[in-house]
Amino acid sequence: MHSPGGKVSGYVALMIVQIIFLVLFWLFVRYEKELLPPAIDAEDAGSAKEHVSKYPQFQDIQVMIFIGFGFLMTFLRKYGYSATGFTLFMAALVVQWSVLMKGFLHMEDGKISLSLENIIDADIAAAVPLISMGALLGRTTPIQLLCMSIFEVALFAANEYLALNVFSICDCGGSITVHAFGAYFGLAVALMLRPSSDQNEAGKLEGASYTSDIFAMIGTTFLWVYWPSFNSVLAEGAGGERAILNTFLSLAAATVTTFVVSALVSHENKLDMVHVQNSTLAGGVAVGTVCNLLLGVHGAVLIGIIAGTVSVLGYRYLTPWMTANLRLHDTCGVHNLHGMPALISAIASAIYASMVTVGDYRSELQDIFPAMVGTNGTETKIMGGLARNASSQAGYQLLGIAVTLLIAIGGGILTGVVLKYTSFRNLKKDEHHQDEHYWEVPAVENKEE
């Protein structure tokens, strides 16, 4: 058991970080010009109205981040306070840090312009360390989560800039830059923090209860309902509505598939609540990168079926194998919900990109595949180089996921080494997956076995 003094110093460090954020906001962040009071003779405030119109989708994403992710991780029977509380803490921290990190990459005259779209971007970025937290759930301290989040969001912002602005890949729903990055970064950290071979068995509290599983289903339901907003909020024009339709259909197909495959592979052919809580959402991840493309409704359904199947099989067979052979304890199974479905989405994006024609997308090509603008059998110069053809764009989609995996895994390994071998305190085996070390828990709960 660690001393109260150690806890106090950790919380002081958290407050210092918040004060640093305050100073950085004061020095660098300003409201976007369109959000300032217009001049007396100004006739147009159109941009501000456009930003306000996205507020309903912003609310949807807020619900996903703060309620959906938080309650999904309450399945551990003695970790409900930490699952919901640390989700709130990490998301509030990361939203601020993401505004700064992304803003530093897009500064104008040495300042960061702040609008509702920046906050939406930051909310989406908050999903990245929350996904990683799922791979480590119950085995880290708050100060370790803080350190991980700071490093991860910095790397995430750099990787996203590289993927979207340099490679110019299509990733409307963030399956490559958000889900794949968060999953494999978290798994790499978990690999570095893995237990010794003589302590590889599951912890005494590493499991669910009937009540905790019901609470986790609340998180699943909120995520399922609002996932179309997550995938479509950054899409432009008709692509936004396609993103909603494709995401919904993929989720629906993945859900039906999850129930069927779960019953087929589980003991006594009974449904497994772990599958229902997680694999039903895999369709939303798998369709994310391509959700605004012309998939055809059958394409969205097919992606959902594949994602649901792969996710359930991952929970049933791959996760136990990783635990037994790699000593990698993926507490929430983020590899099955976020990692592998994101790889499916990246592969699908390469396939669909290879079939893109100007005739199909017309004026939308600029928004979806800007590096392909001007390609119609001729070589047109764009952004200092030659505009891409469909095959080249498909190659860049694969390059985007490859570089994302490289940065995520490499960054996760380095972060895990820092958390394990520096002055950070690591929780002992008997301290895992319980709230009482950091929360005031009712006495009746402490007395339960």
TrEMBL record:
Residues 48-434 form the Ammonium transporter AmtB-like domain. SUPFAM superfamilies: Ammonium transporter (SSF111352). This is Uncharacterized protein, isoform B. The chain crosses the membrane at residues 12-29, 86-107, 145-164, 176-195, 207-227, 247-266, 301-318, 339-359, 396-419. InterPro entries: Ammonium/urea_transptr (IPR029020), NH4_transpt_AmtB-like_dom (IPR024041), RhesusRHD (IPR002229). Belongs to the ammonium transporter (TC 2.A.49) family. Rh subfamily. It is found in: Membrane. One of its GO terms (molecular function) is ammonium channel activity. It comes from Drosophila ananassae (Fruit fly). It comes from the Eukaryota. GO terms for biological process: ammonium homeostasis. It is a multi-pass membrane protein. Keywords: Ammonia transport, Glycoprotein, Membrane, Transmembrane, Transmembrane helix, Transport. One of its GO terms (cellular component) is plasma membrane. The keyword Zinc does not apply. Gene3D superfamilies: Ammonium transporter AmtB like domains. Pfam families: Ammonium_transp (PF00909). The keyword Phosphoprotein does not apply.
